[in-house]
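Q: Please design a sequence for this.
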């Protein structure tokens, strides 16, 4: 069962984005981070200094913990990026990409 609120909510038509090669349903107005969280997709970025696995933290674009690659652009904050049809997201960033 999806943790999204489905009843009595007016939404636009869903569309697919690609996350780590898998099609995932998204709705207009959602950020990439919201889609990752609702689908329980963990980030796999590691810290360059001490190789600690990072994850979601502030959710408002301050901390950069949700950095992902979107359509080939590295170090994009998932919490600030609106989802659009056909978007390609990679959650595992190598420290060399940062």
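A: Design:
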């Amino acid at each position: 069962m999806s943790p999204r609120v489905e009843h009595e909510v007016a939404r636009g038509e869903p569309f697919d984005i690609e996350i780590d090669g898998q099609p995932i349903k998204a709705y207009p107005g959602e950020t990439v981070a919201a889609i990752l969280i609702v689908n329980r997709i963990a980030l796999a970025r590691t810290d360059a200094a001490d190789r600690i696995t990072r994850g979601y933290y502030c959710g408002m674009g301050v901390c950069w913990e949700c950095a992902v690659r979107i359509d080939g652009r590295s170090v994009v904050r998932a919490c600030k990026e609106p989802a659009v049809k056909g978007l390609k997201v990679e959650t595992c960033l190598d420290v060399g990409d940062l």
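Q: Thanks. Anything notable?
A: The mean pLDDT is 84. The chain has one domain: 15-97.
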